[in-house]
Amino acid sequence: MPQLGFLPRRACAALLSQMLRPPRAACLPAVCCHSQVAEVMLTSQLKPHQEKPNFIIKTPKGTRDLSPQQMVVREKILDMVISCFKRHGAQGLDTPAFELKETLTEKYNEQSGLIYDLEDQGGELLSLRYDLTVPFARYLAMNKLKKMKRYQVGKVWRRESPTIVQGRYREFYQCDFDIAGQFDPMIPDAECLKIMCEILSGLQLGDFLIKVNDRRIVDGIFAVCGVPESKFRTICASMDKLDKISWKDVRHEMVAKKGLAPEVADRIGDYVQHHGGISLVEQMLQDPRLSQSEQALEGLKSLKLLFEYLTLFRITEKISFDLSLARGLDYYTGVIYEAVLLQPPAAGEEPLHVGSVAAGGRYDELVAMFNPKGHKVPCVGLSIGVERIFHIVEQRMKTFGEKVRTTETQVFVATPQKNFLQERLKLIAELWDAGIKAEMLYKNDPKLLTQLHYCENTGIPLVVIIGEQEQQEGVIKLRSVATREEVIKREHLVAEIQRRVSQP
């Protein structure tokens, strides 16, 4: 074959053309083949679009979107809760949404199966946090902190069957307040109960009751009733259901499903159906069977001291010593508490079965689980069930047709004339720079009626109106949407708006 480099340019091009051209008979099938490939590729590209009508657009099970109206209500609730936490000297804290899987395992007893595990994405086995308490204990241990009063608001995730009508979701917010450190007995515990009373009273949800017990009393009851120690935690988890199902059903679960002797379950039943105040504490201290348990006696003495402090805080009428309260989480070691609403539904209102709206207790051993030397940091805390509270408020607003403003706009900048966009922009910039919440329509020449209707529909209380006459005279119209307009000097506008919006 001759060297192509030595051929004339035209000869070289002709030779290459002959070498690369397929036989004539093969040309047509090749074209068909390319056409079929293109068709297959086009079909594969179009297929997802063709299947879209069958795709169901929804949020994942147990989650939801929050509308602007819902966000307004939620933020008001959170602001009220956080302000109470701060009033009691708490510092803010945030922790990751996911933790090492080993951080969360063996902390939640039978509920550990509800933890969301994540796939190994970078050499670590991770899980979404189940609550805010265990991450807080990990934080204390990791940073070698002996004392801290903290609050935290954040999402947690639980892979349980959601009950939307009760405000139970798989993804939800928790609002926690905790006191870590070695202090004299029952003083921090009493403050936690005081905080719960302040928040629930402030939210005006109606009458409520805070049930109080002690895990040492629960374990003492189990011991004197004959429950094998190996079954303490699983029987405790059954007992924790007494706020949802009857004692008969709980007893059946203890006996039929967890192998507890019927006579042992009956002895437990003799205790768990009692509730009262300080007098019941005194009665239990004299109980011949329960007094055989050193654990139970310690718990009862702690509750007696707690009631003394609660009396000084003037909240004993909201507190009930309830022997049925168990709090199934493994990490509780002392006083436990849970708040429930007592308010019957108002006229036209659906009954609200939402369970507890706040809960907490003492967990003195949890931090030590993260410390190589097992150093303890006693802790006590509470969690506000903000999702359930929000569900209650939302349902009541629907029942009574209450409307919510979704913005905080204080004043609207309007004009009745054309070609005043630049003046409106200069004016609204002046208001923004003065810290005033202001809006305008994004249109060159909007109609005045359209602008006023916007104010009425969104609840904006004030309207500033500027036109040719006002510009020439150096004045401006400041109009109350609910009443009438006034003419004021242009230079006094910001001060006048600030005066009005500061009025209650």
Q: What does it look like?
A:
The chain contains 17 helices and 16 strands. Strand 12 (411-414), helix 14 and strand 13 (438-439) form a beta-alpha-beta unit. It has a nine-stranded mixed beta sheet. Strands 13-12-14-15-16 form a five-stranded mixed beta sheet, sandwiched between helices. Residues 1-16, 22-35 and 37-44 have low confidence and may be disordered. Helix 3 (68-87) packs across helix 13 and helix 7 packs antiparallel against helix 12. It folds into two domains: 68-400, Bira Bifunctional Protein, Domain 2 (BirA Bifunctional Protein, domain 2); 411-502, Rossmann fold, CATH 3.40.50.800. With 504 residues, the chain is of the alpha+beta class.
End-to-end C-alpha gap = 100 Å
User: Could you report the average pLDDT, rounded to the nearest whole number?
Assistant: 86
Q: Helical content, roughly?
A: 40-55%
Class per helix and strand makeup: alpha+beta
Main β-sheet: number of strands, strand sense, barrel status? 9 strands, mixed
Strand portion? 15-25%
Number of helices: 17
Into how many domains do the coordinates divide? 2
Q: List how many beta strands DSSP finds.
A: 16
Gross geometry: elongated
Q: What is the name of the CATH topology of the largest domain?
A: BirA Bifunctional Protein, domain 2
The CATH C-level name of the largest domain is Alpha Beta
Strand order of the largest sheet: 1-4-5-11-10-9-6-8-7
Radius of gyration, Cα only, in angstroms? Answer: 34 Å
